[in-house]
Specification:
alpha+beta, 6 strands, 228 residues, 6-stranded antiparallel β-sheet, 35% helix
Length: 228
C-alpha cells in the first residue's frame, strides 16, 4: 500500500467514524435531556404523593447539575445521572454481540452511556469528599435511539433485547423508578471495626466536620457486580 492509498483510507475512516460517533452523541444527549424532564416530573409526582405524610426535613428534590448531569435526592439517598461525553463499543465477550440487531449491522453496537450513581446525600451536604458512591446502573443508547440497561435491580430492556425499543419517556420511567427503589433498599452497613480502630490527631483537629472519615454504604465490604 503506497502513501496515497493509506491517506485515502485515513480520510475515509475519519469521515465514517466521526459521523457515526457524532450521531451516537446526539442521540445520547437527546436521551439525557429527556431523562431530566422525566426525572423532574417523577420527583414532582412523588413529592405531591408524600405531602403531609412525612417530616418536612425529609427531602425529595430534583436538581439539574449542568448539560450532562442531573440528581435526585430522596431522603438520605442521592442519585446522580451522568452522561459520558465519549462513545464506546463493547468487548468481544459482551452479550450484545449475540444480538441479531447488532449482527445485522455492527455499527449499532457503538453506544453512548448514562451512568447512575448512588451516594449518601450527607456526603455532599457536609462536603465529605472522600466518601464513596456506587455505580448502580448504566443506560446505553445508539445512533438509532435504541437502548438497553445494565444495573442492580434493573428489570428493563437487557442486551439480548437491544433494538426492540427506542428510548422515550415511557421506557425511561421504569428505569428511574427501579434505580430509586434499589437505592432505598440498599442500606448502609456498619463498617468493620478494624477499618477505623486507628485515627490520627489530624483527622479530629483539622476537620471538625468529620470529612476526613470515609463513609459509604458498603465501606469495608465488597460491592459485587454479579447481578449487573
Amino acid at each position: 500500500m503506497d502513501n496515497s492509498q493509506l491517506r485515502e483510507q485515513i480520510l475515509e475512516q475519519i469521515i465514517r467514524k466521526s459521523s457515526l460517533k457524532q450521531k451516537v452523541f446526539d442521540s445520547t444527549f437527546s436521551a439525557m435531556n429527556l431523562l431530566k424532564e422525566t426525572l423532574l416530573e417523577m420527583a414532582s409526582e412523588l413529592d405531591d404523593a408524600l405531602e403531609g405524610k412525612l417530616d418536612r426535613r425529609v427531602r425529595l428534590e430534583y436538581r439539574d447539575r449542568g448539560k450532562y448531569e442531573a440528581q435526585l435526592q430522596v431522603a438520605s439517598d442521592l442519585l446522580i445521572f451522568q452522561m459520558h461525553t465519549d462513545v464506546f463499543v463493547f468487548n468481544k465477550e459482551h452479550a450484545v454481540w449475540q444480538n441479531a440487531y447488532v449482527q445485522e449491522n455492527t455499527t449499532r453496537a457503538y453506544c453512548g452511556v448514562i451512568n447512575i450513581y448512588n451516594f449518601l446525600s450527607d456526603s455532599f451536604k457536609l462536603n465529605r469528599n472522600a466518601d464513596e458512591g456506587y455505580l448502580i446502573g448504566r443506560i446505553f443508547i445508539n445512533r438509532e435511539g435504541c437502548y438497553f440497561v445494565e444495573g442492580r435491580g434493573q428489570q428493563s430492556l437487557t442486551a439480548d433485547r437491544f433494538g426492540e425499543q427506542e428510548i422515550e419517556r415511557d421506557t425511561l420511567l421504569p428505569i428511574l423508578e427501579q434505580a430509586v427503589h434499589f437505592s432505598l433498599d440498599f442500606d448502609p452497613l456498619m463498617p468493620p471495626y478494624e477499618l477505623f480502630k486507628r485515627v490520627t490527631v489530624d483527622q479530629f483537629n483539622s476537620k471538625m466536620d468529620n470529612s476526613k472519615f470515609v463513609t459509604g454504604k458498603r465501606l469495608g465490604y465488597e460491592f459485587n457486580t454479579k447481578d449487573i
